[in-house]
């Protein structure tokens, strides 16, 4: 690891000479274009502003420091799920994490257990594959003849899957999971929460539910979960992933027993 | 996509500092589990001396118990067994879906109760060394 210091905010601070608080970021850098590129940490100093998020700080570092600093972001309000990173030793969504809540210097790494493409950008393909593996879409046994017809759900049933519908596919949970890190075939927390969301949706019908439960009894599905709770702790949408997986385990066990 | 950089081993071993209570509970549960399996074999070996007659068995046990290090290891074994039992109950509750939001607290409780029982047992184990 080599350290590469810059004074990215030289221009910015010349406008406001007062001794403003600064935020110090230690950012993981990796440039793949370079033949034998090795990653290093670069230090950025960014002027602090009230209400500043980690994403704001990163954007400032990029705009006034090094324009080649690369990271994903889009909505800036915790909706798109593109800016999950490893901030001060924990998976967090940069746009919903306040700088003032963190110890400085703030160390920012790309999500662990995913290959790094460039700087803070990781390869999410495997995570998306696992998400798609559970058919993450509403798929009722008998769709109404008129496709646009509303399919009502009881308020109680909606309440049951409420939290599970909030997933924004950020990948923080899977990145935090030791089991997912060791077993590439393990579906992982977010896909299992997705499965929970549809298995418990009463509108889909018995046939579809059976197929979905069948998948849960696979070796690399719910039984891989060792209840370490890391996924529940890091989820920026407060989804109780472990609770959902535990319930799926009970459903999977009942399903297996019902076959005898 | 161009090539990507796999942070490999550095990333994995550096992570223990970031472990949360649930992860430590898991690590300790595996660790104590393996120790208990190992102990089971020594236990069988020691008990097997009875096949050579009661006298050999008594001698073996007395010999072992007169060693200070064995007494210390027994305390360790108690700690391992108690933690494994308590965390086992914790995991059972988690599997039944009870108190999932208390999982971190119940891990700490397991640790504290283990510590109390182990400390309370020290006089018993070390009491009559060499007698
Ligand atoms: S469950 Fe939470 S942490 Fe996992 S992908 Fe969905 S929003 Fe992100
Ligand atoms: S930028 Fe969209 S979730 Fe953070």
How would you describe what is shown here?
The complex is a heterodimer of chains A (260) and B (131). Chain A starts with a strand and ends with a helix. Chain A has a six-stranded mixed beta sheet with strand order 1-3-2-6-4-5. Chain A has a two-stranded antiparallel ribbon with strand order 7-8. Chain A is 34% helix and 14% strand. Chain A is an alpha/beta fold and 260 residues long. The radius of gyration of chain A is 22 Å and the shape is elongated. The longest helix of chain B is centred in the N-terminal third of the chain and has 28 residues. Classes of the chains: A alpha/beta (260), B mainly alpha (131). Chains A and B meet through β7 and α10 of A and α2 and α4 of B. Bound molecules: iron/sulfur cluster and FE2/S2 (inorganic) cluster.
In short:
The complex is a heterodimer of chains A (260) and B (131). Chain A is an alpha/beta fold and 260 residues long. Chain A has helices spanning 10-15, 54-65, 125-133, 155-161, 172-176, 178-182, 189-199, 206-216, 230-234, 241-258, and strands at 3-5, 22-29, 40-47, 84-87, 90-93, 106-109, 116-118, 121-122.
Rg of chain A, alpha carbons: 22 Å
Biggest sheet character of chain A: 6 strands, mixed
Strand content of chain A: 5-15%
Could you say how many structural domains of chain A there are in total?
2
User: Low-confidence spans of chain A: pLDDT under 50, at least 5 residues?
Assistant: 1-19
The unreliable regions of chain B are none
Topology:
The complex is a heterodimer of chains A (260) and B (131).
Chain A: E1 3-5, H1 10-15, E2 22-29, E3 40-47, H2 54-65, E4 84-87, E5 90-93, E6 106-109, E7 116-118, E8 121-122, H3 125-133, H4 155-161, H5 172-176, H6 178-182, H7 189-199, H8 206-216, H9 230-234, H10 241-258
Parallel strand pairs in A: 1-3, 2-6
Antiparallel strand pairs in A: 2-3, 4-5, 4-6, 7-8
Chain B: H1 8-14, H2 21-48, H3 54-65, H4 68-95, H5 103-126
């Amino acid at each position: 690891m080599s350290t590469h210091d810059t004074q990215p905010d030289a221009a910015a601070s010349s406008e406001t000479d007062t001794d403003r608080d600064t935020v110090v970021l230690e950012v993981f850098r990796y440039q793949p274009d370079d033949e034998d590129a090795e990653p290093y940490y670069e230090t950025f100093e960014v002027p602090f502003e009230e209400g500043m998020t980690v994403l704001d700080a990163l954007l400032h570092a990029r705009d006034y420091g090094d324009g080649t600093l690369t990271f994903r972001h889009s909505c800036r309000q915790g909706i798109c799920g593109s800016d999950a990173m490893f901030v001060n030793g924990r998976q967090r969504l940069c746009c919903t994490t306040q700088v003032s809540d963190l110890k400085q210097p703030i160390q920012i790494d790309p999500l662990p257990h995913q290959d790094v493409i460039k700087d803070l950008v990781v390869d999410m393909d495997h995570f998306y594959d696992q998400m798609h593996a559970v058919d993450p879409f509403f798929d009722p046994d008998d769709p109404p003849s008129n496709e646009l017809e509303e399919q009502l759900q009881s308020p109680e049933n909606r309440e049951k899957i409420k939290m599970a519908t909030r997933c924004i596919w950020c990948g923080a949970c899977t990145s935090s999971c030791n089991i997912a890190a060791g077993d590439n075939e393990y579906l992982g927390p977010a896909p299992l929460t997705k499965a929970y969301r549809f298995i418990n949706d009463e509108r889909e019908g018995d046939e579809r539910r059976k197929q979905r439960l069948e998948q849960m009894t696979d070796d690399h599905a719910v039984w891989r979960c060792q209840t370490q709770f890391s996924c529940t702790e890091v989820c920026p949408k407060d989804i109780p992933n472990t609770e959902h997986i535990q319930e799926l385990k009970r459903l999977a066990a009942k399903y297996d027993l019902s076959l005898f | 996509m161009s090539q990507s950089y796999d942070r490999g081993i550095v990333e994995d071993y550096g992570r223990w500092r970031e472990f949360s209570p649930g992860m430590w509970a898991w690590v300790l549960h595996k660790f104590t589990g393996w120790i208990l399996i190992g102990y089971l074999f020594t236990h069988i070996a020691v008990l097997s001396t009875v096949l050579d007659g009661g006298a050999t068995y008594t001698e073996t046990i007395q010999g072992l118990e007169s060693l200070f290090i064995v007494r210390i290891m027994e305390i360790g074994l108690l700690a391992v067994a108690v933690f494994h039992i308590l965390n086992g109950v914790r995991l059972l509750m988690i599997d039944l879906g009870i108190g999932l939001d208390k999982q971190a607290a119940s891990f700490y409780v397991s640790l504290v109760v283990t510590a109390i029982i182990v400390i309370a047992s020290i006089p018993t184990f070390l009491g009559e060394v060499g007698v």
